[in-house]
C-alpha cells in the first residue's frame, strides 16, 4: 500500500528493488535479476525508480507501524518520504 504497487509480478520486482535500497538483502537483488532474465515485462526504468525511491525513503525497518495505524495513508507517505512508485 505504501508504495502504491500491486501484487503483479512486475510490481513485485520493483518492490524488491525498493527493499534492496532500504536494507542490504542480496536476495532482493537476486530476485530482480532472475525476474528480468526470466522474461518479465518489467522495464529496467521501473527497477531503477524503485532503487532510487527506496534510497530516498525513511528506513521502514525502523518505523513503528502501530503508531500510524489510524493515520491517513497520504500523511504516512509524507512522514516516511515515500513517493508512490506507480506512474
Describe the protein in words:
The protein has 87 residues and is mainly α. The chain has one domain (9-80). It contains 4 helices and no strands. It has helices at 9-22, 26-37, 44-56, 73-80.
Structural class: mainly alpha
- The poorly predicted ranges are none
Beta-strand segment tally: 0
> What share of residues is helical?
40-55%
Tally of contiguous helical segments: 4
Q: Any chance you could write out the topology, listing elements then pairs?
A:
Layout: H1 9-22, H2 26-37, H3 44-56, H4 73-80
Helix pairs in contact: 1-2, 1-3
List keywords for this structure.
87 residues, mainly alpha
A few lines on this structure:
It is built from four helices and no strands.
Amino acid at each position: 500500500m505504501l508504495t502504491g504497487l500491486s501484487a503483479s509480478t512486475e510490481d513485485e520486482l520493483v518492490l524488491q528493488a525498493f527493499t534492496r535500497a532500504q536494507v542490504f538483502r542480496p536476495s532482493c537483488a537476486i530476485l530482480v535479476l532472475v525476474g528480468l532474465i526470466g522474461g518479465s515485462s518489467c522495464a529496467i526504468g521501473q527497477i531503477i525508480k524503485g532503487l532510487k525511491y527506496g534510497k530516498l525513503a525513511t528506513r521502514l525497518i525502523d518505523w513503528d507501524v502501530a503508531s500510524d495505524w489510524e493515520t491517513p495513508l497520504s500523511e504516512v507517505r509524507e512522514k516516511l518520504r515515500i513517493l508512490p512508485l506507480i506512474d
